[in-house]
Design a protein that fits this description.
The protein is of the alpha/beta class. Helices cover 33% and strands 20% of the residues. It is built from 13 helices and 19 strands. It has helices spanning 30-37, 75-89, 105-118, 147-172, 180-188, 202-208, 211-217, 272-286, 332-347, 361-366, 378-391, 424-433, 469-479; strands at 2-6, 16-22, 48-52, 61-66, 96-100, 139-143, 196-200, 225-232, 242-252, 292-302, 314-316, 322-324, 352-356, 371-375, 395-397, 415-416, 441-445, 451-452, 463-464. The chain has an eight-stranded mixed beta sheet, with helices on both faces. Strands 1-6-5-2-4-3 form a six-stranded mixed beta sheet, with helices on both faces. It has a three-stranded mixed beta sheet with strand order 11-12-16. β11 and β12 (322-324) form a beta hairpin. The protein is elongated, with a radius of gyration of 24 Å. The mean pLDDT is 96.
Length: 482
């Protein structure tokens, strides 16, 4: 999508659509007023009214987009209104979209971000899609009194949009294309942004004692990988980094504890946490963030095979703690156990945040529009929740009751890898907490938010959302950059 900022009143070509952001209580004159009066359009959030362009407007179509109350209009509101307008005209056959009504430079920039995110498509494997089903809008102009200031404000947002698109691409790829080594190769290619990327294979991980992560992947013909991504943007390159850790199960059959066939194809996105961490590192490098950061991705396939790990096996993790396997479909926590331990042991970070499509239980607990947030540190949790609110990526703080640890007690090892259905997301988080070694840590269970079909968010088409990239980028920006 080509994005430009133009002065209000700039000429609009005849083959263009104008999206005008309006508010509750606004008055409209002439033909527009008549159209509003003849409809149920009130200017409420998300409402649209598509009308033929009235006399005096050269454009082919005018779409009014409601943004709610004027005094509540903010950056997220500008994004959603612009994205709603784009969605209303994207398949109209018109090539140019003009956004009006997000007048200030910052709001204009956020409106442009809304269109960038809404216009995302993953269509590389479609070979016979009719032209009339493809979006026609290829250029967006955002009207603002200070186009230069808006362009400057948009620069870091463009880097964010690039990173979210990168994350969405990873999650959208089919598993025969994006297996652990291919994922690692795509991350390695991010060195062009200034990142340092190191890839550990199975030989290196075995030498480190990563018996939990390696067990998950031993049933696959695809070699497991650990990607280590570093961004040294602080003035002091030796300063203590912040760290993000991602679950990257590129396909999850459940292993020997195999999943039902129905909807198993969706398990290609069980690497959404690792994709989000890659996206966070992408945006930090893309906007030259003044912070030192580390991203750790545990990349595996969980497949049934004669060499697969089994229920009843006892694994020895890198930490030395032993794990009785009672369900091979509780595999993500095994991957994260070794990745978290490796991260804190090697890098001694200020904090670690892990992201994982970890449990179906989180969906049962809090639904499809929130991710679960577990934390052992109040300041870290507060920063995450503040960034979540600012960026409209919903988190809900979940408890870590010590008493629930008894559910993962094992008769023959230090712990079991699952505590059963009651409090399933909580016991998974308690399992992970055993591998952070006292480091300030938060766990984001994004099983409910990494993939949406259908999507209820105008900036996120059906499919991969890129959830987590923007909220973590915002937290870093607000709290940790020097």
């Amino acid at each position: 999508m080509d994005i430009q900022f133009v002065a209000p009143g700039a000429g609009v070509p005849a083959k263009a659509a104008v999206v005008r952001i309006v508010f509750e209580g606004d008055t409209h004159e002439g033909a527009i007023g008549q159209a509003v009066a003849a409809s149920r359009f009130t200017g409420g959030k998300g409402q649209t009214l598509d009308i033929l362009a009235p006399q005096g407007l050269d454009a082919a179509r005018l779409v009014l987009v409601g943004a709610g109350k004027r005094d509540g209009f903010d950056a997220v509101g500008a994004e959603h209104a612009a994205a709603t307008g784009y969605n209303a005209v994207k398949a109209s056959g018109l090539e140019l979209l003009r956004i009006e009504g997000a007048a200030g430079a910052d709001l204009a920039a956020r409106a442009a971000l809304g269109v960038r995110l809404a216009s995302y498509r993953f269509d590389k494997y479609r070979t016979k899609e009719p032209a009339e089903k493809k979006p026609s809008v290829v250029k967006t102009e955002v009207a603002t009194p200070d186009a230069d200031a808006a362009l400057a404000a948009f620069a870091p947002l463009a880097a964010l949009a690039d990173a979210i698109s990168f994350t969405r691409d990873l999650v959208s790829e089919p598993p025969n294309v994006l297996y652990p080594a291919e994922f690692a190769a795509r991350v390695k290619a991010l060195e062009t942004l200034g990142l340092e990327v190191e890839i550990l294979g199975e030989v290196e991980m075995k030498a480190l004692g990563m018996g939990a992560l390696l067990a998950v992947g031993q049933g696959s013909i695809r070699e497991s990988q650990l990607a280590v991504i570093r961004w040294n943007g602080a003035a002091d390159k030796s300063a203590q980094p912040i760290a993000f850790v991602g679950k990257g199960v590129c396909f999850d059959t459940g292993g020997i504890s195999i999943k039902p066939a129905e909807n198993m194809e969706d398990m290609k996105w069980d690497m959404g946490g690792a994709a989000a961490v890659a996206g966070v590192m992408h945006v930090l490098a893309g906007r030259k963030a003044k912070v030192n950061a580390v991203g750790i991705l545990g990349l595996v396939e969980n497949m049934p095979d004669g060499n697969s790990y089994r229920p009843g096996d006892v694994l020895t993790s890198m930490s030395g703690q032993t794990i009785e396997v009672v369900n091979t479909d509780a595999e993500g926590r095994l991957v994260l156990a070794d990745a978290l331990w490796y991260c804190q042991d090697r890098f001694k970070p200020k904090f670690m945040v892990d992201l994982a499509t970890l449990t179906g239980a989180i969906i049962i607990a809090i639904g499809n529009d929130l991710a679960g947030c577990y934390a052992n540190d109040e300041d870290l949790a507060a920063g995450l929740l503040a960034a979540s609110k600012a960026e409209d990526e919903g988190l809900w703080r979940m408890p870590l009751p010590e008493a629930y640890n008894k559910q993962i007690d094992s008769m023959i090892a230090d712990m079991k890898n699952t505590g059963g259905r009651p409090g399933g997301s909580i016991t998974a988080a308690l399992f992970l907490q055993k591998y952070v070694n006292g480091t300030p840590w938060a766990h984001l269970d994004i099983a409910s938010t990494a993939w949406k079909k259908p999507s209820s968010i105008p900036t996120s088409p059906d499919g991969a959302t890129g959830f987590g990239v923007r909220l973590l980028n915002r937290m870093v920006q607000d709290k940790y950059e020097g």
